[in-house]
Amino acid sequence: MEAKLAAGIAATEDSLLLNPFVHHLELETTSEKIKTAFLTIVLLPIRVCLICILLIVGWMLACLGLWGLTEQDLQKRPVTGWRSKVKVVASYPVLWMFYVGGFRVKVIGRRAPRCEASVISLAPHSSFTDSIAMVYLNSPSIVAKGETASIPFFGKLINFTQPVYVWRDDPDSRQNTIKEIISRATSKEDWPQILIFPEGTCTNRSCLITFKPGAFYPGVPIQPVCIRYPNKLDTVTWTWEGPSALKLLWLTLTQVYSYCEIEFLPVYTPSEEEKRDPKLFASNVRAVMAKALGVPVMDYTYDDCKLMTRAKEMNLPNANVIVEVQKLRTRLGLDQTKIEECFIENLSCQDCSQISYVEFSSYLNVAANDGNAQRIFNLYEKNKSGSIDFREYVLGVVGVTENRKTLEILRLAFKIYDSSGKGRLSENDFVPVLVHTLSMSIYESREIFQRIDSTCQGYVTFDGFLRYAEKKAEFAGLFSLSKEELRERNNSIVDNNKVKSH
């Protein structure tokens, strides 16, 4: 059966590697800029006022429906009686909010009732405006991150849907979420359908990333739902690298119309094998949805988002493409050989700041005609110069692997940028180390170099920097333990005490 073949449209090894976490949005033409400026003055204030009024009305209805209920009550049983009627009425102001905001929705296919599919899988997830689908799904219970509950006004509306909250910082949250999903999906009570965004994060809709298996554990029939935004100017996509939510909201509300398509696909009933293997179930549903959307599937995850975020926070070289680089390295098998780390211990190029592609492939010990190696080189190449700074590549790679702490990355950076080979960094070598590990400015880095090198020797060492940093409050974070390290240390102390007591 075609629907069961997850590999049907899977990305091949030779396919172009996409970055689903990046979105570029600019008003390019003069006419677009003039129209946006005009509508900002004429249309935007009216829309904002009407949306605020409707939001307050919806919030008041949600407060009424939740009156007298505790969080425990919402988790124990579905709302019934007059509360369920208020819940239906509360969805209308939200629907009108989108209509006033210029959205025009086209619905394709038939929505299955809960008796046919207790779980709904919606993808691709690319925007806060995806909540428009909730209105057309009669306010199902969503699986959302716990922070959503604290959003002003919207938090009450979301709570009224009796969501399943995921607390990403809680190590037990994943298991508790799965148990709650299974309980509701298989319950005989009249719970709302469960709406999941199986990708777990926002993308630019260029592909479908890995579906999390949590919602597929119940092994019940699922209705896949695809969402599209067929607009000339994409003002809704909210990714990790791209416009802010406020900018997107402004540009969306200054469009005369924004179009959205919601397509209900046939209910997907899992096989016995899929019931036993939630990951297979999730993968096969993703394949069906990707085929309907006409996009490839790519094995990106929420962890890739965290990786890119950390790289950006540290200002690691080419942080915005680090996820693509890691995927290409996996294709080349470099994640297994860890050849970059070996290179650090034995720097073998006289000037690593400018190496050709032939040298690059040689250092990585890969074939020069390998397209994946060429793609990595192109990502680091600047202005089509025919060369890259190999130090930037190596630092970017080791900076996001092995879950290293900043101090360890800093130590490695000192080695990578040590052109003398003697553990001594000149000012020109020292500056990029701080810029690309501690996200400091060039001016600040030069100033620190001069303070450390007070005797004008022309170089600093790693130990010399540490002695300086230990005395400065701004570097205190380098020497403090993270929450995970503190927990491990405390557990170690407890275990040792137990051993001694016996």
Explain this structure.
This protein is α/β, with parallel strands linked by helices. The protein has two domains: 2-300, no CATH class; 304-484, no CATH class. It contains 23 helices and seven strands. It has helices spanning 30-42, 44-66, 71-76, 82-100, 132-136, 154-160, 173-185, 245-253, 272-276, 278-293, 302-314, 322-332, 334-337, 339-345, 357-364, 371-380, 390-398, 406-416, 427-437, 442-452, 462-469, 476-479, 483-501, and strands spanning 103-108, 119-123, 141-145, 164-166, 194-196, 222-228, 258-264. A seven-stranded mixed beta sheet has the order 1-7-6-2-5-3-4.
Radius of gyration: 27 Å
Number of strands: 7
Q: Give me the side-by-side strand order of the main sheet.
A: 1-7-6-2-5-3-4
How many independent structural domains? 2
What kind of sheet is the major sheet?
7 strands, mixed
* Secondary structure: helix percent: 40-55%
Question: What does the average pLDDT come to?
Answer: 85
Helix-strand makeup class: alpha/beta
Terminal Cα separation, in Å? 61 Å
